[in-house]
Write a structure and sequence with these properties.
The chain is α/β, with parallel strands linked by helices. The chain has one domain: TIM Barrel (Alpha-Beta Barrel), CATH 3.20.20. About 40% of the residues lie in helices and about 15% in strands. The chain is built from twelve helices and 13 strands. It has helices at about 5-15, 20-30, 70-75, 120-130, 150-160, 185-205, 220-235, 270-285, 300-305, 315-320, 325-340, 355-360; strands at about 45-50, 50-55, 60, 80-85, 100-105, 110, 135-140, 165-170, 210-215, 240, 265, 290-295, 310-315. It has an eight-stranded parallel β-barrel, surrounded by four helices. Strands 5-6-11 form a three-stranded antiparallel β-sheet, with no helix packed on it. β1 (about 45-50) and β2 (about 50-55) form a beta hairpin. α5 runs parallel beside α6. The chain is globular and about 50 Å long. The protein starts with a helix and ends with a helix. The structure holds flavin mononucleotide. Flavin mononucleotide (FMN) binds near residues 62, 245, 296 and 318.
Length: about 350
């Protein structure tokens, strides 16, 4: 029944502008109109990453549920985990609308939302009310007008420590001017020091260590990747998320929408984000967890991220085109790929195409 989305739901939603359609999707998930998708538990897909037991490797990426309105409904679609945010300390409205654009022929999305969100308190209250056991990560950022961006990330760690299963420090949105500068070596060292010290203090108080991941852009030079890898390893970072949206506009069919300012995601970013993922895996070695994200649209593309070096995978944009049945289809498809490969654990397939992807020019 959930496949009815492809004919009825998608056609209906595509009558609206992309942001209104997104609001309707959130409302549908909240109301329970979207049915639960049962995925058959498969121990071959389960693994422990950064100390957390994931039942399957597919997560909802940040940006879909910015204000923590529907994390449990998303988990019921078959995702093994979901990430709320990006949340900033103070509420902010983001850039003027329209600010999300569908590139239908390319199965891509361009957004320049600019961290519109209801702020820490609203998201915290919703997360604190949840009683379920599902894995919900909290993606933290800085307000546009912040005088001290590092302090905003630290505030995120402190505010959400009791409710987050993991944190993502998002320093790679292209839509907050200057934010990506935090990826530069000195700024990154200062950020990681402050964020991880705050985490360690909170861990000592709570008696529980919550892992912190760093989410990076796909638009990096080889030297930029070297710097991030060196800092990730020099600090006690728990993992990387590769990647956010791209500023590149290569090979797009929709030349009109391609001119919109913002970050491009969906199928057009698959190649680039997967290559950067492999290049980062080469740099950080086998032990550091990496979550691969960008253009995942099927079990095959999810598996390709794992073969390129990812432990876990996330998606967002392709759900706009494929609908709410996509996570369950991907997780079921991963089980079938495991049969075909005769693999005992999905971990065994990680890095099996690392060299191929790491050799690509980006
Ligand atoms: C409309 C939209 C909003 C997004 N907002 C955020 C965000 O708030 N924080 C973040 O870290 N990433 C955000 N992202 C990036 C996604 O989490 C993801 O990294 C990127 O879109 C690539 O994955 P995809 O091709 O599966 O969408 C957003 C993406 C889209 C399309």
């Amino acid at each position: 029944m959930i496949d009815a989305f492809k004919t009825l739901g998608r056609r209906g939603l595509f009558l609206f502008d992309a942001e209104t359609a997104h609001g309707l999707s959130i409302a549908a998930l909240k109301s329970g109109v979207v049915p639960t998708c049962r995925v058959r538990p498969d121990q071959r897909l389960a693994q422990t990453v950064a100390g957390i037991r994931f039942e399957n490797p597919l997560g909802m990426a940040a940006g879909f549920d910015k204000n923590a309105e529907v994390p449990e409904a998303l988990l019921k679609l078959g995702f093994g985990f979901t990430e709320i945010g990006t949340v900033t300390p103070k509420p902010q409205s983001g850039n003027p609308r329209p600010r999300i654009f569908r590139l239908v022929e390319d199965e891509g999305v361009i957004n320049r939302l600019g961290f519109n969100n209801e702020g820490h308190e609203a998201a915290y209250r919703r997360l604190a009310a949840i009683r379920g056991q599902g894995i919900i990560g909290v993606n933290i950022g800085a307000n546009k007008d912040s005088g001290d961006r590092v302090a905003d990330y630290v505030a995120g760690i402190r505010r959400f420590y009791s409710v987050a299963r993991y944190f993502t420090a998002n320093i790679s949105s292209p839509n907050t001017p200057g934010l990506r500068d935090l990826q530069g070596r000195e700024s990154l060292a200062a950020l990681l020091l402050a964020v991880l010290s705050a985490r360690d203090e909170e861990a000592a108080k709570a008696g529980r260590k919550v892992p912190v991941f760093l989410k990076i852009a796909p638009d990096l030079t080889e030297e930029g990747m070297d710097d991030i890898a060196a800092e990730a390893l020099a600090h006690d970072l728990d993992g990387l998320i590769v990647s956010n949206t791209t500023l590149a506009r290569d090979g797009l069919k929709d030349a009109v929408q391609a001119k919109e300012t913002g970050g491009l995601s969906g199928k057009p970013v698959f190649e680039k984000s997967t290559a950067v993922l492999a290049k980062m895996r080469k740099r950080v070695g086998p032990a550091l967890p990496i979550i691969g994200v960008g253009g995942v649209s099927s079990a095959e593309t999810a598996m390709e991220k794992i073969r390129a070096g990812a432990d876990l995978v996330q998606l967002y944009s392709c759900m706009v085109y494929e609908g709410p049945g996509l996570p369950a289809r991907i997780v079921g498809g991963l089980s079938r790929l495991m049969d075909r490969e005769r693999a005992a654990s999905i971990r065994d397939l990680r890095d099996t195409r690392l060299d191929y992807w790491a050799a690509k020019k980006v």
